[in-house]
Specification:
- The complex is a heterodimer of chains A (291) and B (335).
- With 291 residues, chain A is mainly α.
- Chain A has 2 domains: 47 residues, no CATH class; 218 residues, MetI-like (MetI-like fold, Orthogonal Bundle), CATH 1.10.3720.10.
- Chain A is 76% helix and 0% strand.
- Chain A is built from 16 helices and no strands.
- The longest helix of chain A is centred in the N-terminal third of the chain and has 32 residues.
- Chain A is globular and about 75 Å long.
- The two termini of chain A are 23 Å apart.
- Chain B has 335 residues and is mainly α.
- Chain B has a domain of 233 residues: MetI-like fold (Orthogonal Bundle).
- Chain B is 71% helix and 0% strand.
- In chain B, helix 3 runs antiparallel to helix 14, helix 5 packs antiparallel against helix 11 and helix 6 crosses helix 9.
- The chains are: A mainly alpha (291), B mainly alpha (335).
- At the A-B interface, helix 3, helix 6, helix 7, helix 8 and helix 9 of A face helix 2, helix 3, helix 5, helix 6 and helix 7 of B.
- Chain A: Keywords: Cell membrane, Membrane, Transmembrane, Transmembrane helix, Transport.
- Chain A: It is a multi-pass membrane protein.
- Chain A: It comes from Aquipuribacter hungaricus.
- Chain A: It is found in: Cell membrane.
């Protein structure tokens, strides 16, 4: 369909009548108001975190009436948010790399390398898209306990990675299915082995897909609450999400440091999202439409 | 053309002898003309395929399939977390679920959550997407702003919305005072009558962004010529929307509806963080009850049985979603 690819002419540009101009201005005003309203809770978190502790005590939720980094320092040193931040990195980077690497390998196989029982294996993997984590989270706890993988970086990373593999495999398979066969054939004529074709020809062509999957998976793992809550019962490697939850329960009176902890928790997500918003939204959209 | 297949086929049959290089090089074509690699190549491909898929299968097997099968076993025994061979109790846990008033209350909350938590984000998300449709200037900012809530960690979201609902100095009560509705002021999360709806409000703020992004991408694919033609025919805005635009985005709209519905069954984080299921069970859903049964009340088997019930309730919707998505990606391929 050519209409989907051709740039659509903006209807307002043809006839800039006063009435249309007014409606366009009204639309933009409405959009600005609504987007600022949507961002309000984020602004509130930033504002409360960056006030002086005295100001927070008198006027906890007023917007930007003073400025101080004292709450951030308190959260960082007293609230252990420095440890939580490091643990979040240690729990989301390896699991994300694992998901991207394994999904690319498995996705290529399921798209292009036939072997007996392939479709059955594929169904077993994507079954993870249908079954909620609730179903197996409790047996998994006792299984990890018997493996000695509770409170460990390895155990939590492996569980986080597995929860992402179903979608990852499905996602990468779609990318590999869309590639033309000509390049592969040409490489084969040149004497390339199947492994070389995969690594040197196919993988470089799905780079954008791998990037979108990486960003999407990283956000999911960084934001995951239930997995570290369950499988870090003693909190040896507690990430920001469960760390913030613990802080919320333990010292709910101290709004200032709590706000600072919230800011530390959301800041990496916001920065990553703003920088890579196209990849993130693409990942979500194709995840919903295809996956 | 088909003759080229004979050589590698014979080589493959002869056993472990590698096929002649010349034979391996020629791409063979089947009767349909579609590319079909020679048998030796297919054998290589199969070997590599098994190798590439093995780590994924191992992880899925150990950390997903095995505990899933175990879940059924846990639900049929009475496991206390310690006993090596827990006693078999059959369907007793499921029978108890049927007679447990807390389950029915939780299910009721789940249903309210599913109905309102699906309808409201759909309306808000559709409204935002239509408002943004065709807007180029500032579109990145608007998109980032509207989608932001969906990508934030829900724990952090719960903390900040807790301040908005704060009974003494929260923004919601302050806003009500300003518009003269001060009599409605309450401790939103602590009041059993309002807690569920307060948490739902936060969930709507989160989910609308998701609906918005999906529907906006669907709107991009709407046939603009049809819309323009209907405008020439003097169709008003509402008629254009109802007769031209909505039918075209309907499959995606249905799909987003189903995704949100399914999410409604397994809601956990936001409720757990904001109210923990309270006050007095006012916001308890099946997910929070399954969690507290297993990990707070140490009723591991009962919690697992509850989790299985959630899964079974969500299955029909999941199957419907699956069908929709398959149809959708087929449509996409055909277009």
């Amino acid at each position: 369909m050519s209409t989907t690819t051709a740039p659509r002419p903006a209807p307002v540009r043809n006839r800039p009548s006063p009435r249309r101009q007014a409606s366009r201005a009204a639309r933009h005003t409405l959009l600005v108001v609504l987007s600022l309203a949507t961002l309000f809770p984020v602004v509130l978190a930033v504002s409360t975190a960056l006030k002086t502790p005295q100001d927070v005590r008198v006027n906890p939720f007023g917007l930007f009436t003073s400025f101080s980094t004292e709450n951030l320092v308190t959260a960082w040193t007293v609230g252990d948010f420095d440890d939580y931040l490091l643990n979040s990195v240690l729990l989301s980077v390896p699991s994300t790399l694992l998901v991207v690497a394994l999904s690319t390998m498995a996705g290529y196989t399921f798209a292009r390398l036939p072997f007996p029982g392939r479709s059955f294996a594929f169904y077993l993997v994507v079954l993870g898209l249908l079954v909620p984590f609730f179903t197996y989270m409790i047996p998994l706890y006792f299984q990890l306990r018997s493996f000695g993988l509770l409170d460990s970086l390895v155990g939590t990373n492996l569980v986080l990675a597995t929860t992402g593999l179903a979608f990852g495999t499905f996602f990468m398979r779609a990318f590999f299915s869309d590639l033309p066969t000509e390049l592969e054939q040409a490489a084969r004529i040149d004497g390339a082995s199947e492994w070389q074709i995969f690594l040197r020809i196919m993988v470089p062509m799905v780079g954008s897909g791998m990037a979108a999957l990486a960003v999407f998976t990283f956000l999911q793992n960084w934001n995951n609450f239930l997995v570290p809550l369950l499988y870090q019962p003693n909190g040896d490697y507690r990430p920001l999400t469960t760390g913030l939850y613990l802080f919320l329960g333990g010292r709910s009176i101290d709004i200032g440091p709590l706000a600072a902890g919230t800011l530390i928790t959301i800041l990496p997500v916001v920065v990553l999202f703003v920088a890579l918003q196209r990849q993130v939204t693409q990942g979500i959209v194709s995840g919903a439409v295809k996956g | 053309m088909t003759g080229t297949q004979a050589v590698p086929a014979a080589a493959a049959v002869s056993g472990s002898v590698p096929p002649p290089v010349a034979a391996r090089r020629k791409p063979a074509r089947g009767p349909s003309g579609a590319y079909r690699p020679p048998r030796a190549t297919r054998r290589d491909q199969g070997r590599l395929g098994v190798l590439l898929v093995l780590p994924t299968m191992a992880m899925v097997g150990v950390f997903f399939l095995f505990p899933m099968v175990n879940a059924v076993y846990y639900a049929l025994v009475e496991f206390d977390g310690l006993t090596a061979v827990p006693p078999f109790v059959g369907l007793a846990n499921f029978a108890e679920i049927l007679g447990d008033a807390r389950v029915w209350d939780a299910l009721q909350n789940n249903i309210v959550w599913i109905v309102l938590g699906t309808a409201a984000p759909l309306l808000v998300g559709l409204g935002l997407a239509l408002l943004m449709w065709g807007v180029e200037k500032g579109s990145v900012f608007y998109r980032v702003a509207f989608f932001m809530p969906y990508i934030l960690p829900q724990v952090a979201v719960g903390v900040v919305w807790g301040w908005i609902y704060d009974p003494l100095r929260g923004w919601l009560n302050a806003a009500l005072e300003v518009v003269g509705l001060g009599s409605l002021q309450t401790g939103w999360l602590g009041n059993a009558d309002t807690a569920l709806y307060a948490v739902l409000g936060t969930a709507v703020w989160i989910t609308s962004g998701f609906v918005f992004v999906i529907l906006l991408s669907a709107l991009r694919n709407v046939d603009q010529e049809l819309v323009d033609a209907s405008r020439l025919d003097r169709a008003n805005r509402l008629q254009q929307l109802w007769y031209i635009v909505l039918p075209q985005i309907m499959p995606v709209f249905l799909m987003v509806t189903t995704i949100t519905l399914i999410g409604g069954f397994s809601v956990f984080d936001i409720i757990f963080v904001m109210t923990g299921g309270g006050p007095a069970g006012a916001t308890e859903v099946l997910g929070t009850y399954a969690y507290s049964s297993a990990f707070e009340l140490n009723r591991i088997s009962y919690g697992t049985a509850l989790a299985l019930v959630i899964t079974v309730l969500a299955v029909p919707f999941t199957i419907a979603l699956n069908r929709l998505q398959r149809r959708l990606s087929l449509d996409g391929a055909g277009a």
